What we know:
Layout: E1 4-6, H1 11-20, E2 25-28, H2 34-39, E3 48-51, E4 61-63, E5 69-72, H3 77-81, H4 84-89, H5 91-99, H6 103-106, H7 111-117, H8 125-130, E6 134-139, E7 142-147, H9 148-151, E8 152-154, E9 157-158, E10 165-171, E11 178-185, E12 196-205, E13 208-217, E14 224-225, H10 227-233, H11 240-252, H12 264-284, E15 316-321, E16 324-329, H13 336-344, E17 362-365, E18 368-371, E19 384-386, H14 399-406, H15 416-429, H16 435-441, H17 453-466
Parallel strand pairs: 1-3, 2-3, 15-19
Antiparallel strand pairs: 4-5, 5-10, 6-7, 6-10, 8-9, 11-12, 12-13, 13-14, 15-16, 17-18, 17-19
Amino acid sequence: MWKNYFMPETVEEALKLLDEGDENTRLIAGGTDLMVEIRNKKWPRLETIIDISRVRGLNQIYQDEEGLIHIQAMVTHNDVLKSELVREFASPLYQACYKVATPQIRNRATVVGNLVTASPANDTITPLMAMDAALVLVSSEGERIVRLKDFYHGVRKTQLKPTEIVREVLVRPLAEQERGSFIKQALRKAQAISVLNCCVLLELEHDLILNARVTMGSVAPTIIHSPSAEEYLVGKRLDRSTAKEAGVLAAQDIRPISDVRAGEDYRRYMMQVIVEDALLEIMEGRTDSKIPKHPVTLTSKEEMDETDLSDWDGSLLKTNINGEELQFSGDFRLSLLNFIRERVGYTGSKPGCEEGECGACTIHMDGKAVVSCLIPAPRAHHARIKTIEGLSPEGQLHPLQEEFINHGAVQCGYCTPGFLMSAAKLMEEKENPDLQDIKDGISGNLCRCTGYYKIIEAIEAAFEKRGGTQ
C-alpha cells in the first residue's frame, strides 16, 4: 500500500504536492484502475497518493462562449449520462460512456482517467478521437493544450509529464448535419473490456457524405483512424453497399494482435462488421434510440457537500456510516471495504473479486452506489456511507429483503448484500423502471449459483408493492 495519502482541496495544492513527489507518487481520482494495480502489487514502492476527488471546481460539464464543451477532470461516466448537453452535442461520447463497465464503476471512474490510462481498449478515447478533442494539461509552470490525437505514444504511454494534471477535455459540439455512432464488441454486455470498438462520425447533406471520420480501438497500440474508409466514404451516398465496403476497408487498416480475449483474425473480421453496423445505425437513425432516455446511474439526489478537509492529517478519520458519526485513528492504508469490515465491524459487504467486477461489496457513498473494494479508506473522511446493515435502520426488513425471501432469490447468499444495495439505490432513482432498467441496475452484480430470474422477479415485486414498474 501507500505511505502518505493527501487530499488537496485546490488544483494549486495538488500541483504543489506533485512537484514535491517523485516516481513513486500517484494521482488518484476514481481509483478504479490504480486500486487494482495496488492490489496486484504493480507499485511495490508506492510512496504517496494524491487524491484529487475532493478538489473544488473539477466536476463540471459546461459549454463556453465559443461553443466548446468542457468536461472536467472529476466528471464521471455517469455524470456524462446525466448531461443533456453531451447527449445532444457529443452523442458518440455519450454512447461510449453508457457501455463502460457497470453503474457502480461509472459512479467513480472518470472520463479523464479513462483517457490518461491510455489503453487502446478504453472506450471513451475512440469517440473523442473522432471528434478531435483536446486536453488541457496544467502544472505549476502553467498550462498547455494537447490534441488527443497527439497525446498517445503507445500502449499506456502519453506525453503527460509527472508534474502535470489533465484539468479538462475540450470537445467541439457536433454540428446539426453531423451524426455519430459508437459500437463496442465485448465478451459480455457489462463488466467487460472492449475486444474492439469503433466510432463513425459523418457530416451529411441528406444522404450524401461530405466528411467522414472512422476511429478504431483495441486493434493497434493506440486508437487509430481508418484513412481508407474515410477517403472512400467522402462523396458517397450512405446506403447498405457503401456501409459494407467501408467496413471492408476499415478492416484492412487495423493492426490487431491475438491475446486471451480474441484472435487477430476474429478482430479483423469483427471490425468489418461493427464499422458497417455503425454506418447502418446512422443511416437508419438508431444512434439515439439504442440508449434509454434516462439511463440507470444508481444515484440519488443526496450528494456530498463541499467539506473542509483541513482537519485531515492522515491519523484521524471522521465519517458517517449508517447514520452514525464515527471517528477512527491509526492506519488507514487499506481499501474502504476492508476498513468497513475490519475497523468498523460491518461485515455484510463481502470481498469477492476485489477488482470491481462482482459487486458483492456494493455500498452507498454520498448518494451513489459504488464498489467499496476500489476506494481507498481515507476517502471515507467526511463521507456519508450506507452498508447493508443500514438498509433497514428501524429493524424491519426492507421491501427488497422481503421479496428476496418470498421469491427464493437467495441461495448461498454471498452476493445478496450487493444485489440489495444496487436494487435499493435503483428504487431511490427510478419511480417506474422497465425490465431493462432493472437489468442495468444489477448489471454490476454477479451471482454464481441462484441465477438472475428470481432476483429480477423479487425486484419487480418490490416495485409493484410500492406502486411502480411498467
